[in-house]
Amino acid sequence: MAESHGPGLAAKQIRLTLDVPDRLTIAGNPFLLHQALDNLVQNAIDFSPQGGALQIAGKAEPDRVHPHR
User: Fold this and answer.
1) Among residues 3, 4, 14, 42, which one has the fewest Cβ atoms lying within 10 Å of its Cβ?
2) Mean of the pLDDT values across residues 39-53?
3) Which of these, 59, 48, 41, lies nearest to 4 by C-alpha position?
4) pLDDT of residue 38
5) DSSP secondary-structure letter at 19?
6) Residues 12 and 51: beta-carbon distance below 8 Å
7) First CA to last CA across the chain, in angstroms?
8) pLDDT tens digits, residue range 15-44?
9) Which residues on adjacent β-strands are paired with residue 58?
10) C-alpha–C-alpha distance, residues 64 and 4, integer Å
11) pTM
12) Closest to 54 (Cα-Cα) out of 19, 21, 14, 20
């Protein structure tokens, strides 16, 4: 994720951190899940201030994935 958004992150000096389990699995269409996450990150970059920070975090439970709050 950071690689594909590297230029946008660098241009605005935004720090991106990931806090997800190593083996997190999400059921669904891989293309659509990637597209949704990609859109969320791009929107966060677009609307974050110069020098801001973004964090992608989540945790797995037996039957669902929860975002950290």
Assistant:
1) 3
2) 95
3) 41
4) 93
5) E
6) yes
7) 20
8) 999 888 888 778 889 999 999 999 999 999
9) 67
10) 27
11) 0.78
12) 14
* Separation CA 11–CA 34 (nearest Å): 23
Question: Within 13 Å and on the Cβ side, how many CA atoms surround 67?
Answer: 4
| Contacts with 13 (C-beta within 8 Å, 6 or more apart), sequence order | 50, 51
Element (H, E) at 67: strand 64-67
Name the pairing type of β-strands 64-67 and 53-61: antiparallel
Of residues 64 and 60, more confidence is placed in 60
C-alpha closest to that of 2 among 14, 23, 16: 16
- Work out the percent of the chain whose per-residue pLDDT is above 70: 88
Percent of the chain with pLDDT over 90: 52
